[in-house]
Amino acid sequence: MRDDLELSAPRLNRFARALICGRSRPCTLADNLVQEVLSSALESPSAHQLAEADLRLHLYSLITELHRDRLSPERISGHARMEKESFSFATQSTAERTPDLTSIRGELASQLLALGLDEREALLLVVLEEFTYAEAARILKISRDNLIARLARARDGLHLDLVLQPAERAERVYPSYLRLVK
Predict the structure, then answer these.
(1) Model's pTM, two decimal places?
(2) Which residue has the higher pLDDT, 117 or 26?
(3) pLDDT at residue 77 tops 80
(4) What is the CATH number of the domain that holds 50?
(5) Longest C-alpha distance within the chain, in Å?
(6) What contacts 24+ positions apart, CB below 8 Å, involve 23-29?
(7) Whole domain around residue 51: which residue ranges?
(8) Distances (CA, A) of 97 to 89, 165, 167
(9) Tell me: the pLDDT tens digits for 52-61?
(10) CA-CA distance, 107 to 104, in Å (whole number)?
(11) Contact at 8 Å (CB) between 26 and 86?
(12) Structural domain includes residue 171
């Protein structure tokens, strides 16, 4: 079991950092959360009986539950904006930013953290961690239909076109077979 936990640790760290801080760089809160989840899995007699795939689902379920337990009720119900340190680009306007990789990552991180916690969890589990809809719904303890609704709201909440500068948006070439329907 220790080997399975060691193999899961980097992915859990990535998920926790994206969930809490909106970035992949070290984040103390996320790292502490992962450490707590791994410790509780080692101490849990039921976790020792799980198969590798079920253990992975169990670990992600634990991490989302512990994260929600640590948040206050008003942060869960509203848009849970996390640590101030994760917003290195939040105060700059779109026109001031240069379209380099750092600013795109900052924009994406701020948009991700602007989503509600429910939507952010669903999106990260499906897109970042590549769980199936059924697995992600099981982790979040919701129905598959509810998960799909959360994903749709999350995808609507992300405005990835805003990352491109206005001149780049105008130069974007669309395939000729696509037409605009009003």
Answers:
(1) 0.69
(2) 117
(3) no
(4) 1.20.140.160
(5) 59
(6) 23/86, 23/105, 23/109, 27/83, 27/85, 27/86, 29/83
(7) 2-164
(8) 8, 9, 13
(9) 778 888 899 9
(10) 5
(11) no
(12) no
